[in-house]
Amino acid sequence: MKGVRSYERSLARSKAARSHKDRPEVFTLHGRRWDLLDDVFAPPFSPSTGVAMDLLGLTGSGRPPCGSFLEIGCGTGVIAVSAALAGCDRVVAADINPHAVRNTEMNAARHGVAGRVRTLRSDLFAGLPEADRFDTVYWHSNFVLAPPGYRHRDIHERAYVDPGYEAHLRYLRQAPRRLTEGGRVLLHFSSRGDLARLRRSVADDGGDLRPIASATVREGTEDIEYTLLELITAAG
What we know:
- By secondary structure, the protein is α/β, with parallel strands linked by helices.
- The chain is 26% helix and 31% strand.
């Protein structure tokens, strides 16, 4: 497990995916074609996005989210666009990476939902209007823990590692303020991350991370578990 959680290995995976000689401009996932720009997390090189769609019920295997949907860290926009295609009436897709924001715009246009998917560049919630509230707030996080002092060398690395889980803790503390009454905060996580450590931090704030669904995928010689978590706060 220590090797699976190695942040150095995840940084190497980031570098390989960013510079792969066969990195496509268009890829297929769950029967749909998607545009892929440079310096954006590439679903063709990781099963994580496809698994996330399954766990969210966006592939016909469960009940998808409905109502208003906010995705933090939208990347190519696969999740946000799929949420709109599944019936969410208002979708906002945010990412700190400007290339990801553009990529999501392209895929929303490709699939005919540009009118229901609003994109913006934002460090977590910083760029959203203060009054915005959502039925579902979701983040497919950069779940690998890096040392607190680590500085990302490029924008692409931000999709892979989180120094000291600083971004995770900001997300989990700020996301509940963005919910409608009865809304849900969701987090896509992986056994490449340190869930026990993250749950201890959440418990210190009086909350918990409750597993909703999970799937295990063979990646090379390793079994990687992906889990969809719901934040339960002290206020319920």
